[in-house]
Amino acid sequence: MEALDRVVKPKTKRAKRFLEKREPKLTENTKNAILIKGGNANLTVTEVLKDIEFFSKKSDCSLFLFGSHNKKRPNNLIIGRMFDYHVLDMIELGIEKFVSLKDIKNSKCPEGTKPMLIFAGDTFDLNEEYRRLKSLLIDFFRGPTVPSVRLAGLEYVLHFTAMDGKIYMRSYKVLLKKSGCKIPRIELEDMGPSLDLVMRRTHLASEDLYKLSLKQPKALKPKKKKNISHDIFGTSYGRIHMQKQDLSKLQTRKMKGLKRKPIAKMTEEGEGISPKKSKSV
Fold first, then answer.
1. What's the gap between Cα 186 and its chain centre?
2. Helix/strand/coil for 151
3. Separation in Å, CA 101 to CA 105, 107, 144, 239
4. Three-class DSSP category at 248
5. What is the mean pLDDT for each group of 10 consecutive residues in the chain (281 residues)?
6. How far is residue 86 CA from its own chain's centroid?
7. What pLDDT sits at residue 145?
């Protein structure tokens, strides 16, 4: 018996709207995360999930974070993401040190603040597993895409450092101080949470699948403009095509040395004849 693929049409407007939201889009929705607490998660893992949830929201989840604890893998976090409703990347991290939001008594930034992400360490660029982890963390904490940000809105920094086989996560509140000029003086104040992590197991997508997940629709690709090029620093250069110019009609500065002489006068001077008449003796 052959199985035929049938297209099920929605019977209600609500079902139609639900299916339309799940269809592929040129500009995808903002990625949201779901945080899952394992049945045997201890207090440390629970507090980590609570603090990270402070900067995350649960809905339409293409990102996930699972926390657990056991004798073999204590204080365990699994961070991952989905592509086309399948697991794309999963990375297991162990918590070695944790300082929560409530343990740091400084002021906090408002919930939902878009952070500035900073990654320090060559390992994030040289090692494939750390490179995927960097991409995953950017997906997890980047927040919604916005056309512009005002200066006062840049008040939260997430700093990740890869060094000696560990990942150090620190969060700071940006303080704008008076500097005596238009540009304020910047100070960073520890806000929490603070995490010392170590990478354990990884489950990464193949290179082909990873490239497929990064593929952009043709409609979103910028059209190539003629006579415009860019250098390695992103500077744009344009080439202008103009008609041939008559340089004899070019307006120059009026200087005595550049003043044109009459043609008749130039001819006489060329033949050695003085334009003035000589006086007779």
1. 22
2. helix
3. 8, 10, 23, 55
4. helix
5. 52 74 62 71 79 55 84 90 82 92 81 85 91 90 78 85 93 86 86 91 86 75 75 76 76 66 57 53 44
6. 24
7. 76
* Residue 199: strand, helix, or coil: strand
Query: How far does Cα 108 stand from its chain's mean position?
Result: 24
Three-state DSSP state, 236: strand
Closest-CA residue to 135 (of 119, 151, 157): 119
pLDDT at 5: 44
Q: How far apart are CA 46 and CA 75, in angstroms?
A: 9
* DSSP alpha helix (H) spans, the chain: 13-22, 43-53, 123-126, 128-141, 207-214, 263-271
Q: pTM for this structure?
A: 0.64
User: Locate tokens 């400084």: which residue?
Assistant: 106
Q: How many CB atoms lie within 10 A of CB 131?
A: 14
17, 75, 149, 166, 176 from 145: Cα distances, Å: 24, 32, 10, 30, 24
pLDDT of residue 161: 95
- The H or E element spanning position 77 is strand 76-83
Distance CA(201)–CA(207), nearest Å, equals: 18
Measured CA to CA, the distance from residue 140 to residue 162 in angstroms comes to 18
CA 248 to chain centre: 53
